[in-house]
Amino acid sequence: MTFDEIYRFFQDPPPIHLNTELTVCYVLSILLNKDSYGTELIRVLKKQYPQYRLSDTVLYSALKFLEEEEMITGYWKKLARRGRPRRMYQIQYRGRSQAQELALLWQDYTRNGALELATPAFNLRQTVSQS
Fold first, then answer.
1. pLDDT at position 39, please?
2. Which residue numbers delimit the Transcription regulator PadR N-terminal domain (predicted)?
């Protein structure tokens, strides 16, 4: 290791691989704006957040969790200029409020990093769970 390597590390850090918790929040932040499908969710992440990476395994674990919790539903849709139908995901109306809270956590995480998760939604959730 050299000091130049240390400086290069901070100038061009390695990608951050999302875990399931972060992926749930990321997915909800996208689905609040429009319905989407798996490949598109990964593509949007690469474009909007190039420092982050998301594996198919983690993404589909997060989508399965959200479906089991009845926060999102899936449906099949044939997209223009695409071969096979895609499994599209949308937020259920009754899950919208919690989806907004979790999307705020994602926004704060990407803006401030993991050390400063101090959003009103996060503080509210902590207060409720401590009661």
1. 94
2. 27-100
